[in-house]
Amino acid sequence: MERTEQDQKGSGRSSDVGRPARPAVTAGRAAGAVPAPAARGVPAAAARAMNTFSEADKEKQRGVRRMKITATSLLLFVAVVYILAKWASNEGAGAWAGYVAAAAEAGMVGALADWFAVTALFRHPLGLPIPHTAIIPTKKDQLGVSLGEFVGENFLSEDVVRQRLRAVGIGSRLGAWLADPEHADRVTAELSAALRGALTVLRDSDVQAVVGEAITRRADAQEIAPGIGKLLEKIVADGGHRRAVDLIVARAHDWLVLHSDSVMDAVQGGAPGWTPRFVDKKVGERVYKELLRFCAEMRDMPSHPARGALDRFLTDFAADLQSDTETRARVERLKGEVLGRGEVQDLIASAWTAVRSMIVSAAEDERSELRLRVRASLLSLGSRMAVDEKVQGKVDGWVEGAAVYVVTTYRREITSLITDTVAGWDAEHTTRKIEAHIGRDLQFIRINGTVVGSLAGLLIYTVSRALGA
């Protein structure tokens, strides 16, 4: 029954925050019924760490026992003094015995009261189920909730986070750290390893599909004819096309010189069958010479009429690409046909393979241009961040903004880590562990209570005697 109620409370933790623990659950935990850490989302390692006693814990526990013996011995001492003082007073030892007895009596009261208070933190005094005792084992979960709320309100607030991060000066410190060449090399190596790892994990087929789809979608969504027209118009206006014309004409002239027979055979092969062969030959020779002359003149004459005609054609074509609806539609249809061809899609997909191989090789090579540029950029960034307050302010602002977003968005999850972890601790072991860590200091409360009680009793007795006299 106790186990069932524990599980029900664990499943309803988010709605029961701040409510008193139920007696059945409390009793079960005090008896050692440990809620399953996995059921509460508590890491098993955290539960084991709190539910086991290390050698350091055992040594602290031995120190607590020694201090308990000291405090108890002091209580017994004042008790013996009280008995002896009362006996001496009854035997007529004098007024001093009354003062000693009063001091010892008050010391016993103070010692017993503080013993009760200290013991009540960890267990029921003398095993009696006195209300509001055994506070830690019975109120463990409530203490965890209170601790989580305290941390959330006082450590995870936006103002506190910003103030603490601003005081740290992350921008200047990070800049000074990055400005060190050794640190820049380390960051470069880590970034290279991360890049290689990411590229290794990615499947080529997935990336190729994404790249191909992105390029195709972008090309389909944007009309290219006006852009091509503007580019062509600028090229013609600047005379950039003339070098291409010079190259084409020169190559055409050279080809005609080397393939004269092929040209004449082509002309003769296209002649009608009824013409005499010598006429076909003469016509072929004439056509070849005219073609050769035309190419030579275009090659050697920058002001050749054919060049001017070509300039006017390109200018008109550039204007049609920008303004003529039919021309633009034809270009779009041609673009769609080209992109739809399998060869083009394969080319787009294969581009990723080449890029990936190039990036991986550059990341592995310590002397590659990629790594050298990254290292230089880190050193430059570090040097600027170390001295430029404006850059430091930007970095600090980014870090503060990110930290504030995390603590404000996930504050409940962060504080629940505390409450759930405390809830996953075994009550008995938790009590023993806490007592081992703070119990020695608590025993000083008993000692101080004995001493302060004795002094207070002596003072009260003295004032009472003085007023009574």
What does this structure look like?
The protein is an all-alpha fold and 469 residues long. Among the domains are: 2-154 and 412-468, no CATH class; 224-332, no CATH class. It has 22 helices and no strands. It has helices at 2-11, 23-30, 44-50, 55-90, 95-122, 135-138, 140-154, 158-168, 170-178, 181-201, 204-221, 225-238, 241-258, 260-269, 277-300, 305-323, 325-340, 342-364, 369-387, 389-409, 411-423, 427-468. Helix 4 runs parallel beside helix 22, helix 8 (158-168) packs antiparallel against helix 20 (389-409) and helix 13 runs antiparallel to helix 15 (277-300). The longest helix has 42 residues, at 427-468. It is rod-shaped, with a radius of gyration of 47 Å.
For the record, give the distance between the C-alpha atoms at the N and C termini, rounded to a whole number: 66 Å
Proportion of β residues?
A: under 5%
What is the approximate shape?
Answer: rod-shaped
Mean pLDDT: 80
Indicate the low-confidence ranges by residue numbers: 1-41
| Main beta-sheet strand count, sense and barrel state | none
| Topology order in helix (H) and strand (E) letters | HHHHHHHHHHHHHHHHHHHHHH
Our count of helices gives 22
Strand-pairing-aware structural class: mainly alpha
| Rg, nearest Å | 47 Å
Q: Helical percent range?
A: over 70%
β-strand number:
0
